[in-house]
Amino acid sequence: MLSYLVIILMTTLGMVFLADKVLDRLMSENLETASEAVSALAKADNDLSETYLTRFGEKLVEAQGHQAAALLSLELSKRDLQDYGEIRKDKELRKIAAQNIYTPEGENIAGHIDVFDNKGVAVWHLNSSVEGRNYSEWKDEFPDMWKLVQRSFTEDRVQGYYTFIDRNQKAAKKFMALMHVPGTPFVVSAVVEIDKYFLPVQEKIRDADQKAEQQARASIVKSTGSTLDHAKFLSLGGSLILLALAGFFGFWFTGSISRPIMGLRDAVKKIGEGDFQVQVSERGPEEVKQLSQSFNLLGRQLTQYVNRLAEETAAKQRMESELSIAAEIQRSLLPTSFSPPVGGDRLEIYAVMEPARNVGGDFYDFFSIDEENMCFAIGDVCGKGVPAAILMAVTKSLLETAAGENSNPGHVLARVNRRLSQNNESCVFVTIFCCVLNFKEGKFIYANGGHDSPLVIGQQESIAFLDHPGGPALGLFQDAVFPTQEFIMEPGDTLLAFTDGVTEAFDRTGRFFAKENLIKQARRLTDRSVRDVVIDLFKEVVSFSDGMSQADDITILAFRLNKKV
User: Fold this and answer.
1) What is the mean pLDDT of the chain?
2) For residues 451 and 475, is the Cβ–Cβ distance under 8 A?
3) CATH, domain 56-197, list 3.30.450.20, 2.60.40.10, 3.30.1360.40, 3.10.20.30
């Protein structure tokens, strides 16, 4: 009997020992698997947070730059933008144009905002010794930064990264966002060191991930130890039952710990594929549950961000569509048929108008006064875009109405000026050249309201600018007087009128097209038709710019008197 008891006891002890080893092996594998999953989840969470923080940071920096550009556009609308020294004295302008960029928590300085013009000259800078210097001075030291600055000369919005070396020869990766100040030749530069910009937040996220990982590991270890002790105690009830229960419990325990973490891992993969609406079950140990809750919150926030981005994109597309329709309407306001309404073959007329944006402020017009007289006009509204286009349409309508009442160009400009000067609190203005040609006598009467004088191209290759009779831009002085002057056009003479978008077009070196080049090109085209003169001159201006972004509206109007009656 004793021998049987010994055998049973030895058998039981052997089975208990075997069960203990099996359980130890299962628990060790479960702990290793769970630990790896927790580490992978923590790393994925940290990497994902850092990626989206960087993108969000870029948007925040660009938004601060846009805010500064909008404020500067408003403040500079009534300023002389040629006198940099004078506008630098304005403390309010300097607060806007040269300021620090702080971290989102507002505790540390992460970057700065400064302003340069469309040639790269620093207008405002936190370091006053930089002001007046050209960014090209640093193109060899910081080539990537200079490439971004160069792109801003031709593109409305530019952003990118470059490497900055400080005085201690320490390299730092910086993000630069550049955008134009509307209505000015200036560019706002918003620069931050992205790592420094979100460093406090990133450190908090990493600390939180490490703490959650440690807590999850401790919870798993504690839970594993408790479960293992319980399993050993149950094994004393019977070796076979204990082995069966140990195997069953081992598989159950693996699933209870690993399943939520594996679910989190799969969900992270889905978010990486773009499915931001994925949600996970908020079950398991407390630390795993907290990770699940944080993950679900991240998914909801990403979904809201994507939806908001989609709405903003749709709004931008609608605005672009409306601007396209506005451009079609503006083109329909200008004459598109260049057959003279009176005079027949005695006149050749042609014109082009190319706005710098979808719509512009330049215009041209020609119409008959009576059977012997025609009125011609070309104008340039200050500014660009939709506001300039609206004022252009109003001015053109006033011009035709005034000419119908009294065709004298001086009276026409004076009447239009009085109307534009009324309630003109924003001090917008228009430059206009207006003339009336008599076919029978060849007499040419004109007045000039602050516009560039046209060229007269004679048959003997004589080219000269018309004398400017004097007269300010329209809309500024209600009682302004616009003197008239006469000129006799000979058969074959051509008058070439233009806006400053022609002479002030610039190439990649900042050199202007200028009036000298205009005369040179006009002399080359003396034997061409009026249409060819206008089209070839326009192509020359575009070719001269060599791909640079068009800074101003370009308008050319020309007519030729073929014979007198």
Assistant:
1) 82
2) no
3) 3.30.450.20
* E strand map for 83-134: 99-102, 109-117, 122-124
**Cα–Cα distance, 3 to 514 (Å, whole number):** 119
Q: What is the DSSP string of 342-410?
A: SSGGGEEEEEEEE-SSSS-SEEEEEEESSSSEEEEEEEEESS-HHHHHHHHHHHHHHHHHHHHH---HH
pTM: 0.47
Contact 565, 443 (CB under 8 A): no
Distance separating alpha carbons of residues 68 and 180, to the nearest angstrom: 10
Q: Which residue is associated with the tokens 């000015």? A: 184
Residue 79 CA to residue 314 CA, distance in Å, equals: 35
Is the pLDDT at 401 greater than 70? The verdict is: yes
**pLDDT over 60 at 353, yes or no:** yes
Mean pLDDT on 143-157? 93
Q: Residue 4: its pLDDT value, please?
A: 44
pLDDT digits (tens, 9 = 90+) for 278-331: 787 777 777 777 777 777 787 777 777 777 776 776 666 665 555 555 556 656
What is the number of H-type helices and E-type strands within the chain?
13, 16
Cβ-based neighbour number of residue 322 at 10 Å: 12
Q: Has residue 416 got a pLDDT over 50?
A: yes
C-alpha 30: how far from chain center: 52
- Separation between Cα atoms, residue 290 and residue 278, nearest integer Å: 17
Q: Are strands 157-165 and 171-180 parallel, antiparallel or unpaired?
A: antiparallel
Order of strands, sheet of 554-561, starting from the edge strand that comes earlier in the sequence: 347-354, 554-561, 494-498, 455-457, 463-465
Shortest CA distance to 420 belongs to which of 452, 446, 393?
Answer: 393
User: Which range is least confidently modeled, 65-69, 90-94, 171-175, 198-202?
Assistant: 198-202
- C-alpha distances out from residue 197 to 36, 44, 105, 144, Å: 31, 21, 9, 20
- On the 0-12 / 13-18 / 19+ scale of CB atoms within 10 A, 52 is middle
- What pLDDT score does 550 carry? 80
**Residue 207, pLDDT score:** 72
What tens digit of pLDDT does each residue of 79-112 get? 888 889 889 989 899 999 999 998 877 778 889 9
Query: In angstroms, rounded to a whole number, what is the distance separating the alpha carbons of residues 115 and 123?
Result: 6
Q: Where in the chain is the domain with CATH 3.30.450.20?
A: 56-197
10-39 CB burial, b ≥16 within 10 A, e <16: eebeebbeebbeebeebbeebbebbbebbe
| Contact (Cβ atoms closer than 8 angstroms) between residue 250 and residue 258 | no
Backbone phi, psi, residue 545, to 5°: -65, -20
pLDDT at 330: 57
Domain ranges in the chain with CATH number 3.60.40.10 = 326-561
Class of domain 326-561: alpha beta
Number of Cβ within a 10 Å radius of residue 126: 15
Extended beta strands in 241-356, E state: 347-354
